[in-house]
Amino acid sequence: MTRNERFEQILMLLRDGELLRARDVAARLGVSERTIWRDMAKLVDYGVPIEGERGVGYILRRPVALPPLVLTQDEMAALHHLLRLAGAHADTRIAAGARTLAAKIRAVMPPDPEEDTPL
């Protein structure tokens, strides 16, 4: 799991408005408490309204809007595969739709240095 994916997961966990201990978040995400402490500090630095401290817990004081679409690497791989299949479809509308959709996604996604064949 990348750091950005972990940030997204932390925000999803905090959305319920409950106090969360770093120990519990760390266990759910498979990282150390220290990693969660650093992540919480970084999220606060980014302006996320998280209140709390080490040893007590963390809470999100007001809702935070996440980007409309955040994809994991596995989700991107699946999307890439499906778009390639759709691009080869016999129905020209589906094939054309797959090509334009891939172009729109490429335009808003950061480049993936590990991806050798872009969408």
Automatic annotation (TrEMBL):
Q: Which Pfam families match?
A: HTH_11
Q: Does the keyword Transcription regulation apply?
A: yes
The record's InterPro entries line, in alphabetical order, gives: CBASS_pafABC_assoc_protein (IPR051534), DeoR_HTH (IPR001034), HTH_11 (IPR013196), WH-like_DNA-bd_sf (IPR036388), WH_DNA-bd_sf (IPR036390)
Keywords assigned by UniProt, alphabetized: Transcription, Transcription regulation
According to UniProt, the name of this protein is Transcriptional regulator, DeoR family
**Boundaries of every HTH deoR-type domain copy:** 3-58
Q: Which GO molecular function entries does the Swiss-Prot or TrEMBL record give?
A: DNA-binding transcription factor activity
Q: Does the keyword 4Fe-4S apply?
A: no
